[in-house]
Amino acid sequence: MSISFYPAKEQIISTPKGPIQTVASIGELDLNVTNRNAAQIMNLLGFELGDDGAGQIHDVARLEQRCREELAIIRTAPEILDGGSPDECDGNWIECGHGQGYFEDRLSQLRVIAEYALLHDGVVGWS
Length: 127
What we know:
The protein has helices spanning 35-45, 60-76, 78-81, 102-119, and strands at 2-13, 20-25, 31-34, 55-57, 88-90, 93-95, 123-126. It is an alpha+beta fold. The protein has one domain. Strands 1, 2, 3, 4 and 7 form a five-stranded antiparallel β-sheet that branches. Strands 5-6 form a two-stranded antiparallel sheet. The protein is globular.
């Protein structure tokens, strides 16, 4: 399973049963990562994904700042702080690892998404 992060706008849609609040993706940007990696990234940045399978990050300025701060830390010693992880297998459960620089790359992409959302007065959605 995976989670996608994207710049979005909150909107209210009128329905026969009353208004509902939704989130619509804006732009072409998207970052798709495994659930485990999404949780690790959000934990690293000090955010929680929650349990409902989708949501929004409203404090986009803080998200962009935390991405910038963590990227600066990773770049001081990338081989230690972002050295990759091996594949793990336990019976039918397989957890694919990732190579060196994985988190630097994903944080860079998430920062671009946050910057785009800030420019367009949006949020960062995830699902």
